[in-house]
Input
Amino acid sequence: MIRLNINGHVHEVDAEPDTPLLYVLRDDLAMNGAKFGCGLGQCGACTVIVDGQAVFSCLTPIAALSDRTIRTIEGLGNSPVQRAFIDEQAAQCGYCTAGMVMRAQALLEHNPHPSEQEIRSTMAVNLCRCGTHMRILAAVRKAATAMGSAKVTKP
Amino acid sequence: MISRRGLLAVGGGLVVAFSLRAEEPARPGSLKETPLLDAWIRVASDGRVTVFTGKAELGQGLKTALLQVAAEQLDVPVSTVELITADTARTANEGFTAGSHSMQDSGTAILNAAAQVRALLVDAAAVELGVAAALLSTVDGSVRTTDGRGIGYGPLAAKLNLHVEAAPVSALKDPAAYRLMGTPMPRVDIPAKLHGGASYVQDIRLPGMLHARAIRQPSVGAKLLAFDTGPVERMPGVVKVVRDGSYLAVVADKEWQAIKAMRALSAAAQWEETATLPDETTVLETIRALPARDIPILTWTNPAGPAVKRQKAKYTRPYLMHGAIGPSCAVARFVDGTITVWTHSQGVYPLRAALSGLLRLPLEKIHCIHVEGSGCYGHNAADDAAGDAVLIARAVPGRPIRVQWMREQEHTNEPYGAAMIAEVSGATDAGGNIVDWDYGVWSNTHNRRPAVGGLMLQNAALPDPLPVPPPTPIPMPEGGGERNSNPIYAFPNARVVSHFIPEMPVRVSALRSLGAYLNVFAIESFMDELAEGAGADPVDFRLRHLKDERAKAVIALAAEKFGWAAGKPGEGRGFAFARYKNLGAYCAIALSLRVEHETGQIRLGRIVAAVDSGQEVNPDGIRNQIEGAIVQSASWTLYEQVHFDRRRILSADWSGYPIMRFPAVPESISVHIVPRPGQPFLGTGEAGQGPTAAAIANAVRDAAGIRLRDVPFSAAKVKAAIGI
Output
């Protein structure tokens, strides 16, 4: 049994220690937010926040996560980032969306005043195939404003 | 007299009946194939409305748009409408959700069915209230009289029979009175996607569900040799190894256990492989030289001035990948000889037929239910994932089986968009007008969607494979490789031929916009080449070769919003236009970009699009689709190409098949809609693919003086063209 602190709750999980966090979230805890995209850390669909950092849950074995604080989109409540994604209708199929939100959330918690270039380079880790990038960028800018930061400066 | 009159009446009646049938307008949209009103709309006795569509939500916003249409014509609040999408037990068979047909087919059917149901409700209320129907109005799910009396739809519907055929013509609302159609509506599916709700087939969890993984043949025709599956069967959680000929899969209690077992099987399995693939470096020449069936598309012969200048060019694209972010997935359950499949296939009815073949099971024993998956952009591995789920579920009866493909499986086994070649020659007269146009396109089929078992990926692996039907072209006006090969411009003389190549060196099928991407890229690049030869402005040159007023309006709007008349913006600018299939939405794109000489990188600047989709339903949905098409097409155009050696596909993940990432997306995209109230819906989802590619090529020419005709415009090609 491994104890995992997820969204403020401690879960005792009976899974093999090499199991990537993604499969524990999805299969053991029936959470939908983090998605399997590549299993290789190339697309970011599985992104969650561990101790304040955006990480690939598909590559992070649970053995490395006891005593760490894990947050998923289910634990955000209704954050300004989520609200901005809805305001901007920043999705088509939406499969990448939860990962996008979590990476943007981690960015804005660390850097409430990101430049356009900082937003783009941070979000570069996450792939979208529907081409909703412009809306996602707009949503991140809007969330930054809503989270109390000054107007995002263009590069 | 009476007798003669009677005879005439009988005879005349027959004639009238006959001629009425001949002249009677066809029922609109999918009402043609499925005319019963209650196949589309049902009204419960509590007034709640259920709307049925045979189309599927693919992330294109279909659900929201159809809800707007139904609620508008019925005069009910959207919140009282439930929408049921593609399901072989519940909805009409509308074939595939493809070709930007959903609004034209299903949207039109629901528009008319809803208007007719509303009229029937009003008629019923007229009888009930003893008031002429013309004096009644409808609002918020009830019929009202002018003096304030009203009856809800529920009690009226309880007495109404909607199991009747739709009339060919409906009393549609006046578009000026629309309160929902034409107004942006937030997508109904997005909130759940933002809050971890169960939205996808990947999120299905059924009691007792097991997880499976298939081990794919590493190359086409690979034969699985004898090997010991025992060690894998003894791995933790493994329930079963499924093996049938060269088909191999594993089932486990948990997903990670299934993946580990899959990897162990992959490592242990020995395959006998054959080199079936062509040489990638010469694949376009190989395709061009294969035997082709020549399909004449059009021949125009009209008087024209003498040609003073002739230009020629060749344009190509490589194999392109759909590249869904979420690998394909399906869930299946086999109970008492009946199988239920939850799938993100674009066609639940055709898939049912294909699975029936694969399983040798009658159609009525198979139930396919569409559940959203990751965006597909055409025929990807969705159907084949369903093939895995049913084969594995049959081997483990009673237990729901969830199978999701791995990234490398999706990348290397999905059917690609075909590599293509277009060759064009055009002549202008002394006034710079095009007087002759000669165009040929070479392509494989763009439709290997499974409607029979022989077209499922698993078929070739099974010991007793079904016959594989030969590839066929898609006839015009839709077309496959020839889609949009017919120019929309009014040339006095033109010949267009589609060279359909049956032999497929690489597995291919439908990728968003089919041949339209390459054909529009070629035509719209060549229009600029001819304009340049004639010393004409690209926008003026297009306008003067067009007769279609809606086409001209879209071009004028894009040019105006971009500020085309103001001249070169200090960087390259390009323009392109097409009407998708010459039947769907009109889309014009103007954009700016820079070419970095040192790196060969193309940096996209400001992109402006104008679109005419007929009557708008959800304007924000139209904008979202066009924006997405622009970014996706820009990614195809700048980066994408499937790589392979003589045996295997080498583009196995996102490092082997890079797509556009955030730092490279344009500075801005704005989409402007030409309002067309009351006009038929025009499919929009694919309209941006072709114009984007050509606008980029034209802007690169403007920026760097180089003409790129072979997609993708990789940095290496750009540098080579510049001469660095």
The domain at 420-446+481-722 of chain B is CATH 3.30.365.10 (Aldehyde Oxidoreductase; domain 4). Chain B touches chain A through 62 residues (CB under 8 Å).
